[in-house]
Amino acid sequence: MAKNGSVQVRRVLTETPLARQHEKTLEGKVTRKRPPIDFAGFDRSKYPRPALALAYHAQTRLALGEYTAVDLFAHLASAMTLNGAPFDLVAAAATIPHDEIRHADYAMRAAKAIAGNDAQIEFDAGALRKRWQKPMGFEELDSTMLEVSAIGETLSCSLLSACRERATDPMMRAVFAGIVADEVHHARLGWYYFAWRAPQWTRAEKQRVADRAGEVVLRIEPRFWRGRDAPPAARKAARALGVLESEGQREAVRSVMEDEVIPALDALGLGSSHAWRIRQRGG
Question: Cα angle vertex 151, ends 264, 159, to 5°?
């Protein structure tokens, strides 16, 4: 970006697989198939109340996160545009809000089927607006993409995959499958962004990103320490509904952090494996 605020834009793509996917999308060669979800066929009488209550809570919390992510990714797409990011990154970011509202719709419809009546979520719109009080330059964009897309969506994909693996109920399994299919792409966007952005960092910029990555990694485990633990008599039913218990949630987080997130951050030269070794523990 020039000092006068103008941005010169050329048609530039990243040197990542995202660029090839972008070209194929423009040629009409890439379409994502959506699994059918039979919300009307869900039989809540098959499950005990404690399992239904946990599944309802999980789906309304999922809906809340996905709904508010519409605003978040819309601003990320805007920030990429205003900072002159490559076309394939902007295009991928711009598609995510549509995915997120569909995910929220899935979760709300699942919650309605589980409860037998309409579900409702609530959030503080004023608090969300405050985070956009100033434009995002590359420093803020780096930090947000790190926490939200690269780390956050990779974790989300792992956790929702664990829910899908547990779920035997046809409706719930289809809901999780439909969301995970998109979350994979949302997580990849973050890593593709950094594959393009990292070579441009100054030493100071790289240090700032490394510091932020360390802060996130240090505190990640306690955030996910408690899952939704059903009473013994309802555990099998809760599992069938894709409810993720504490131990399973902890394992999903540990596994994806150690197998995917930390190696990827280290590959960017951010030294996050040290932060993971000294991380705060849950419990």
Answer: 110
**DSSP letter, residue 198:** G
Task: Give the whole-angstrom CA distance, residue 3 versus residue 13.
Answer: 24
Cα 210 off chain centre by: 21
What's the confidence (pLDDT) of residue 4? 58
pLDDT tens-digit readout, 235-250: 999 999 999 999 999 9
d(CA 271, CA 251): 23
pTM for the model = 0.91
Give per-residue pLDDT as tens, 49-66. Answer: 999 999 999 999 999 999
- Is residue 252 pLDDT above 50, yes or no? yes
Supply the DSSP string of 43-96, one letter for each residue. -GGGS-HHHHHHHHHHHHHHHHHHHHHHHHHHHHHHHHHHTT--HHHHHHHHHH
Question: In this structure, what token pair is assigned to residue 84?
Answer: 């002159």
Q: Helices marked H in 116-234 — which ranges?
A: 125-130, 138-144, 154-166, 170-197, 203-223
Cβ atoms of 66 and 107 closer than 8 Å: yes
Query: Token pair of 281, please?
Result: 């523990």
